[in-house]
Specification:
Helix content: over 70%
Order of helices and strands: HHHH
Low-confidence stretches: none
Radius of gyration: 22 Å
Mean pLDDT: 86
Number of helices: 4
Largest sheet: none
Structural class: mainly alpha
Distance between the termini: 58 Å
Number of strands: 0
Length: 110
């Protein structure tokens, strides 16, 4: 099975599991969190026995300058730009939360 299908299946499964867990926590309270986590872990462990690694036919050869060629590809540049913009979008929150936490810790230690 291609990696992309595994990723899509995992993402859909995560969305369904989190949504179901949210409804269960709302209906039964927070005491269902530990049984939900235990059940999820058991399901994950059991399903790993049904996953078989597919052999790869090609042999990867290390080539000089392959990394530089890779990061010059349009898709990689686009991905790195998006990752950087995502970091920039979240950086103010990280700084704000860090200062809020430091202020709280400082005030508690006085």
């Amino acid at each position: 099975m291609p990696y992309t299908r595994v990723r899509v299946g995992g993402s859909i499964g995560y969305i369904v599991a989190v949504t179901a867990a949210g409804f269960m926590i709302e209906a039964y309270g927070t005491q269902v969190i530990v049984p939900l986590m235990t059940t999820s872990t058991l399901i994950a462990v059991i399903t790993t026995f049904y996953i078989y690694e597919q052999p790869i036919d090609r042999v990867a050869k290390s080539q000089k300058g392959a990394f530089l060629r890779l990061i010059k590809e349009k898709e990689i540049i686009f991905f790195l730009a998006l990752a950087f913009l995502s970091y920039l979008a979240h950086a103010p929150f990280n700084v704000f939360l860090q200062f809020t936490y430091l202020r709280r810790v400082t005030l508690e230690n006085k």
